[in-house]
Design a protein that fits this description.
Elements: E1 2-7, H1 15-29, E2 33-39, H2 44-51, E3 56-59, H3 68-85, E4 89-93, H4 95-108, E5 112-116, H5 127-140, E6 146-149, H6 152-160, E7 169-171, E8 192-197, H7 206-214, E9 221-226, H8 232-241, E10 248-251, H9 257-262, E11 266-269, H10 278-286, E12 290-293, E13 308-311, H11 316-327, H12 330-347, H13 350-366
Parallel strand pairs: 1-2, 1-4, 2-3, 4-5, 5-6, 6-7, 8-9, 8-11, 9-10, 11-12, 12-13
Helix pairs in contact: 3-4, 7-11, 10-12
Length: 376
Amino acid sequence: MKIVFVITRTDTIGGAHVHVRDMASALRAEGHQAEVVSGGAEGPFTVVLKDADVPSHVVANMVRPINPIRDVLALIQLHRLLKRLAPDVISLHSGKAGWLGRLAGRLLGIPVVFTAHGWTFAEGVSETGRKFYRLAERVAAPLATRIITVSRQDRDVALAAGVGTRAQIVAVHNGMADLPASCRASPEREPVRLIMVARYEAQKDHRTLIQALASIADRPWSLELVGGGPGEPALRSLIERHGLSDRVAVHGLRGDVAERLAESQAFVLISNWEGLPRSILEAMRAGLPVVASDVGGVREAVVEGETGYLVPRGDGEGLAERLAALLEDPARRKAMGQAGRDRYHECFRFERMYRETLGVYRSMLEATDRPSHGEP
């Protein structure tokens, strides 16, 4: 089978990028053909794909902002490239790639699956943005053979919004490959190092986290932020205004996230909206307790009071209380971290996600009369 993955950006590495890299690598390891198409100029993601020995291509005009002229040019370029690559299945990830890829797939008669890594019309997005993106997804949904959501919550949100049909949408939880025991954390250690791995963009709510930590500055803690993105200067200014510069380390993209998690005692992800964040699964894999915003499908991973805590969106006071509770109780951190590790192992291994996703690809081919490149 030959699968071509299409994703909009190369200038950052988020959960969708990790998903694409891991799926493409696993497919190739099993003897399938897998290649990746991304937009804009070559960037950090291009390097990641090269290191993983995954063939990649760039469509220069496929960029994130809406630009009618460049979008038309990108559709033409993508159509030509996909026609030449001739995949059995086109697997689309992220908004712009999802739209253009569905159009190109329909024009070429190639089965298309769109994976929604969290809807842009979810709660937490501005009302104007929600209306626009909801309409856009309603229009685009019929162009996809299948739609994968990374949580059951996102499947329910899509159906309630009139995006796709029950037969078309399938939920496949994200999964992560396991790592050696050397990448496991010791949550009971003190002083407590907190860590949040998330891009510095509007989706993530670093502001509420910093304000919450400022209110418990009398406790012993430090925070490591890993991400990169356009919001970094404003974030640094916020940290400085709260007098926390000596306790909060701000990093860009890093290739040693697993090691950073292993050196931490608790993981935090404060967001405005999510699908099913891979960073939370990474933290659970490392054996860390998780404190996260109760948005999207987060509660399908984090069990309240067992593997960590869920906090309502924007609730800085509640966040401070939950963080203080963890800071004060090493035994609780250890127990929650172990429960999270067990839950990861039972529900969120990469092998399960891979097999379920491959099953979606195969079901799409079985429903068409197109000749395929065959099974390995």
